[in-house]
Amino acid sequence: MSADAIITARNLKKRFGKNEVLKGLNFAIPAGRIYGLVGHNGAGKTTTLNALLGLTDYEGELTVFGRNPFAERHKLMQDVAFISDVASLPRFLKVRELFDLIEDIHPHFSRDKAQVFLQGTDLKPDLKLKTLSKGMLAQLHLAVVMAIEAKLLVLDEPTLGLDITYRKRFYRRLIEDYMTEERTLIITTHQVDEIASILTDIMFIRDGEIVLDMETEALGTVYTQLVCGSDKADEAAKLGPVFSETRFGQSVMVFENVGRDKLAALGEAATPTLSDLFVALMQRQSAIPGDK
Amino acid sequence: MIEWNESQPIFLQIRQRLVEMILKSQVKPGEALPSIRQASADLAVNPLTVTKAYQSLVDQGVVEKKRGMGMYVSEGAHAVLLEQEREAFLKEVWPRIRAQIEALGLDLKTLMQTEADK
Question: pLDDT above 90 covers what percent of chain A?
Answer without folding.
Answer: 50
